[in-house]
Amino acid sequence: MQPIKQSEVQQALDSFANQEVYLHLETTNGAYASHFNEGFFSAGAYIRNAKVTYTRGTITGDNPYRIGLKMPIGWIYAEGLTDWEIDDKGRLLIAGHDHEGKLAVALELSKEPF
Amino acid sequence: MDRHVLIVFPHPDDEAFGVSGSIMKYIQEGISVTYVCLTLGEMGRNMGKPPFATRESLPEIRKKELEEACRITGIKDLRRMGLRDKTVEFEDPEELAKRIRAVIDEITPEVIITFYPGYSVHPDHNACGAAVIKAVESMAKDQRPEVHCLAFSHDCYEKLGQPDIKRDVSEFADRKLEVIKAHRSQTQGLVQGIKKRLSKENQEFMNQLKTERFWIYKFQN
């Protein structure tokens, strides 16, 4: 992955808009967060292969970035995004890595199921 | 008769820190080791340091890392169960136990190594251990292999007492470090950390590697 270039990611988001696409959306602080730091409240969620259509996708912020995808009756949102790539299957992979390089958030779009 | 040991863990690299020395010791003694790994660790947070994996490339990378770790350890029979990381506890426990039972029936191990259910921190670890216990409980009492469990929750010593087995694996410490390094995407940061730390702490880490601890599961029924 490379550090996010806002204009390039914006272009990619535009290319997935207004069609049925598959979404992987995830936040995580790891299964060990509360083990190593007992005061830490561990929370996370993921959804894989949600079939969605968005009419407007926007990336904002100043490293880390935020992305909002506006759907006909709802929203998809992620923050803390730092890196991105289009992989060899043409999928848009966007991730946020923390200061240790560990994955904290992922937002991915694909025209085929993941 | 051929002697067998069965290892059942949910993630590639679960075997590296606490068990790989014992595995090398078993293999040196001529005992065959089968490693059943339930998932590919698809949802790991570590992507390498600096990150070289993505959420989508991680499974294939970890699969290769696991194969390399098995090569170093000497494991010739590696089996994957095709489950997905972080979902083991949501699978049908009966079905998972049946699949593990089928492997037990096939290779008739004298010992099974897995996580101690309830004392192994990660939900996948606990669910994996519980499935193994369920599988063994379905066997006649005089047919059951011993189950040697790893535990590392904060309360494991308080609740379980001292481990039943403390195995000196110091002769394999260097190779064990190679096994840990083979899981590069997951351990690169840790290994860099070891190099940076004071040599005294390095020594402590190496001492931890040299003894492996297991609790023998006591079946209630």
Automatic annotation (TrEMBL), chain A:
Highest taxon of the lineage: Bacteria
One Pfam short name: DUF1806
Stored InterPro entries: DUF1806, YojF_sf
Name of the protein this chain belongs to: DUF1806 family protein
UniProt source species: Scopulibacillus daqui
UniProtKB/TrEMBL annotation, chain B:
Record InterPro entries: BshB2, GlcNAc_PI_deacetylase-related, LmbE-like_dom_sf
Entry-linked NCBIfam families: thiol_BshB2 (TIGR04000)
Protein name listed in UniProt: Bacillithiol biosynthesis deacetylase BshB2
Database matches in PANTHER family: N-ACETYL-ALPHA-D-GLUCOSAMINYL L-MALATE DEACETYLASE 2-RELATED, N-ACETYLGLUCOSAMINYL-PHOSPHATIDYLINOSITOL DE-N-ACETYLASE-RELATED
Species assigned in the record: Scopulibacillus daqui
